[in-house]
Write a structure and sequence with these properties.
The chain is mainly alpha-helical and 55 residues long. The protein has two helices and two strands; from the N terminus they run E-H-H-E. Helix content is 42%, strand content 7%.
């Protein structure tokens, strides 16, 4: 199973969170929070078409 997930623009759906929790041994909540913080810190900078926070 591939443990790399990429969350694109917006918040991951419940199904995606469940899939992440099943695939990863660590809680996903903190990683999702850090991803949203990372997104907010990047708002002022131009973003490429395809981007996301990889776990």
């Amino acid at each position: 199973m591939n443990n790399k997930f990429t969350i694109l623009n917006g918040t991951p759906s419940e199904k995606e969170l469940i899939a992440l929790e099943k695939a990863l041994p660590t809680p996903v909540v903190k990683k999702v929070e850090s991803a949203s913080l990372w997104r907010k810190s990047q708002i002022r900078q131009p973003l490429p078409r395809k981007w996301g926070q990889s776990f």
